[in-house]
Amino acid sequence: MKTSTILTALVAIGALLFYLYMKGYIFANFESVDVKEAKKLIDSDRNIAILDVRTPEEYRLDGHLANAMLIPVQQLGEQLDKLERVRDKKLIVYCRSGSRSAMASRILANHGFHPINVRGGINAWKKEGFSLEK
Q: In this model, does residue 61 exceed pLDDT 80?
C-alpha cells in the first residue's frame, strides 16, 4: 500500500474522530438528548435551568428558548460564577446546531455542573415546530 494512501486514510479517520468528539458523540463527560427529550425535560422537571451558548446576536435575531440564560461559549469559562445559583440543577445547554453546546457541556461538567447537551440545537428545535421567544 502506498504511503500517501495510508496517510490519507489516517487523516480521514482523524477528521471523523474529531467531528464525533466535537459533537459529543465520543469521550463525552456529559449527557446528550435530542430536542424532543429536551422539551419533555423542560416541561416536566422543575429542577432544570436552560443555557444558550450562542452569540447575543443569534439569541436576539433567531429567538431563544423561554427562560434561557445567555452566556456565549467563548465567555463561559470566565462567567461560570453567573451559573452558581443553578449549580444543583440539570442544565439544558443548546446552541445553533449542537457543536458549541457540546463544547460548553464539557466545560460545565469539568466544573461540577450537570449539563445536558441538546443535539441539533435550536435548528432541530425549530424543525420540530417548538416555540421560541424573541
A: yes
